[in-house]
Amino acid sequence: MKKLILIHVIFLNLFNSFSQVQVVEEKVYSENLREVSSPIKASIIEDFDNLNMFEYAHTLPELLSVLNKSEKYKRKWIAYLNSLSQKISDTTESRYYASKDSLVIILQSTFFYNTLQQIKTENIENKDALLFLKNNLKKLSTCSSISNSDILDKIQISDQRGYTNFWYFFQVFGCDFVQNIVLEDEELKRYFLMNIEEFEIISTYKIPYELQKLKWQNIQERLNGNRDCKGIVNQMNSREIGIFDDDKDFYSTGLKEGINKLSEREF
Q: Terminus of the chain with fewer CB atoms < 10 Å: N or C?
């Protein structure tokens, strides 16, 4: 049975077949050269739970800067990692939210794990913070591979806000997911081609515009690096990211209505 291998592809280019994926090292961690984003850093400082592990793989400059501030944030990071384990074992109705799906959390954690494994400490300004992250990777629940059939069984597309997990699989697997699962299934193919330009991506003060843009552009770069997926990139160029939270009341308004809008996120 063909398997998708979960691999780090943010700062490295990965090529080859599913069964034998090799890392082709370039200048690793070029992301570190960009300036720290104040909105992203502010979100992390407010609550580590604002972002998921896939997003922390994109925001290492901000995360390292926060962890370097004081021991308090290191303790909070450990608490956050422990909370992920609790979410994975959650059997309540909240697990049906895509953002709380146990497999999604495991895949995101694996993506983060593989990202950190490829970063060389000597290239990083906040070395102590990076070592702290690496030393606590064992707290993460990760996996090395997952079969196509298992992913197909897990994919959830729903009209109910917060229940569609399709785009989380797209994030972590990129072109492999498109080529070997989506385009092989007529229903998923139709959904993907209809929605790649139009499904809703929102930004808020918890999930800043800069972060959503980073994630989207990275997916484009990864797809563009694979000749089988280059055609999809053009469909992604006109993407708009909504800014929903200028007054920082998006979540508080939702809570007054009994809605946890952070849990409802789908990208």
A: N
